[in-house]
Design goal:
Blueprint: H1 3-24, H2 28-40, H3 44-68, H4 74-97, H5 100-123
Helix pairs in contact: 1-2, 2-3
């Protein structure tokens, strides 16, 4: 794939992922990883690490906008922040030790489980 085509595709993916993250408050990594693997032809470990780095500024900007609008639950913020920092550090170390096929399998299972939970909650 030509370099300019990759850049255009990555820009389109970026707009889509940014929109979904800002609109739904989630989905950055779940959408970004499966999109950038085939575009960049990179291994899952590198795709996950890249997605995390890309999602950081998206989340900061979206979080600031939501906080300024008052659509933010500060009672949830600090405990979840502490937990996600601890989980993020642990996940980063584990990601580095697993093989790509295991990472892809775990990622797929988590995506399917999240989808099933959301469908059940929407129906009930």
């Amino acid at each position: 794939m030509k370099t300019w085509v990759k850049v255009v595709l990555l820009l389109l993916v970026g707009v889509f992922v940014g929109f979904v993250n800002g609109f739904l408050g989630a989905g950055g990594g779940m959408l970004l990883v499966p999109c950038i693997i085939p575009i960049l032809n990179i291994e899952p470990k590198k795709a996950h690490a890249t997605a995390i780095l890309i999602i950081l500024p998206i989340c900061i900007v979206s979080g600031i906008i939501f906080a300024l609008k008052g659509a933010f639950d500060f009672d949830v913020f600090l405990p979840c922040l502490i937990g996600t920092i601890a989980g993020g550090v642990l996940g980063t170390f584990i990601l580095g030790k697993l093989k790509n096929n295991i990472i892809t399998s775990i990622f797929s299972i988590v995506m399917i489980a999240a989808g099933v939970v959301m469908i059940v909650k929407a129906v009930v």
